C-alpha cells in the first residue's frame, strides 16, 4: 500500500504544482480543521476529498481505504472516551445517561456528553486526516524533504526521515518474502502455528533488516557518501493561478463561515 501511495504521488495531476504551495495549503487547512466547529470541519473534509479524488485523480477506492484504515485506530480508542464506570451502589441514573449495563458490582454507562466528545474527536480527526492525505497523495516524499531543507530544518533530521521512509519499503518487502517462504514450507497451519510463525518472522525480520541496513551503509560509503543526502528534483514546477485562487478563496470562505457561526 505504501508503495502504491508513493506511485500515486508521482503520477498525481497536481504533481507539477510547486510543493511549497501544496505544503502551505495543507498546513492552512489542517490548522482550520483543528480550531473550527464540526460544520466547517465537514465542509473542509468534503472539499479536501474533492482535491484528492477529482483534481489529483487519486482512485477513490484507495483514498477510502487509507481513511478507513486510519479511522480503525480512532475506533479502537473510542470505548475509553465513550464508556464510563461507576460502582453499583454509588451510581444513580440521570437524564444525561444514554445507555447503561450492570456487570457484577459495577455499572458501565454512556452519557450524551461522552457521545458528543467522541463525535467532535471523530470529525476533527477525519478532517485532519483528509489534509494529511492531500499532502501524501500529491507531494512525493523527496520534494517534502527539499521544502523542509529550504525552510532551515537541519539536514540530520531530513536524512533520518529519508532513511526511515525508505526502510519502510525494505521492511515490507522482506516481511512479505519471509511470510511467503513460511507458507511454502507448510507453515501457518492453525492459530497456534500462525502465532509461532509470526514470532519467528518478527525475530528474523529484525536480524535481516540490520543486515540490509549495514549493506546499504557500505554501498553508500563506497559511492562517496559524506553524511548528507542530496535530493534532486526531477519535475518542473509550474504555478497555477486557478488552483491558487481556489485554495485561497476556499480557505477564506471557510474562515468567514467559522466566524459567522460563532468561532
TrEMBL record:
Positions of transmembrane segments: 23-50, 62-83, 103-120, 127-145
Membrane disposition: Multi-pass membrane protein
Broad class of the protein's primary localization: membrane
The UniProt record lists the keyword Mitochondrion: no
Keywords tagged on the record: Cell membrane, Membrane, Transmembrane, Transmembrane helix
Compartment(s) where it occurs, according to its Swiss-Prot or TrEMBL record: Cell membrane
Key word Signal present: no
Highest taxon, organism lineage: Bacteria
InterPro entries membership: ABC/ECF_trnsptr_transmembrane, Cobalt_transport_CbiQ, ECF_CbiQ
Protein name: Cobalt ECF transporter T component CbiQ
Record organism: Brevibacillus ruminantium
Gene name in the database record: cbiQ
Amino acid at each position: 500500500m505504501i508503495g502504491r501511495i508513493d506511485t500515486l504521488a508521482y503520477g498525481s495531476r497536481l504533481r507539477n504544482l510547486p510543493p511549497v504551495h501544496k505544503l502551505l495549503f495543507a498546513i492552512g487547512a489542517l490548522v482550520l480543521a483543528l480550531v473550527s466547529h464540526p460544520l466547517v470541519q465537514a465542509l473542509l473534509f468534503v472539499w479536501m476529498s474533492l482535491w484528492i479524488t477529482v483534481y489529483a485523480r487519486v482512485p477513490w477506492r484507495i483514498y477510502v481505504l487509507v481513511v478507513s484504515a486510519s479511522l480503525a485506530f480512532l475506533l479502537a480508542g473510542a470505548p475509553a472516551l465513550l464508556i464510563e464506570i461507576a460502582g453499583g451502589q454509588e451510581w444513580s441514573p440521570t437524564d444525561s445517561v444514554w445507555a447503561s449495563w450492570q456487570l457484577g458490582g459495577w455499572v458501565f454507562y454512556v452519557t450524551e456528553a461522552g457521545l458528543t466528545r467522541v463525535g467532535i474527536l471523530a470529525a476533527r480527526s477525519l478532517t485532519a486526516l483528509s489534509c494529511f492525505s492531500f499532502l501524501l497523495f500529491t507531494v512525493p516524499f523527496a520534494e517534502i524533504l527539499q521544502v523542509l531543507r529550504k525552510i532551515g530544518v537541519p539536514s540530520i533530521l531530513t536524512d533520518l526521515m529519508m532513511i526511515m521512509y525508505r526502510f519502510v519499503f525494505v521492511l515490507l518487502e522482506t516481511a512479505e518474502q519471509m511470510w511467503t517462504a513460511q507458507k511454502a514450507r507448510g507453515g501457518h497451519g492453525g492459530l497456534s502455528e500462525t502465532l509461532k510463525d509470526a514470532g519467528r518472522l518478527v525475530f528474523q525480520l529484525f536480524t535481516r533488516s540490520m543486515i540490509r541496513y549495514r549493506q546499504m551503509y557500505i554501498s553508500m560509503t563506497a559511492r562517496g557518501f559524506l553524511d548528507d543526502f542530496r535530493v534532486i528534483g526531477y519535475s518542473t514546477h509550474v504555478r497555477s493561478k486557478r488552483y491558487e485562487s481556489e485554495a485561497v478563496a476556499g480557505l477564506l470562505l471557510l474562515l468567514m463561515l467559522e466566524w459567522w457561526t460563532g468561532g
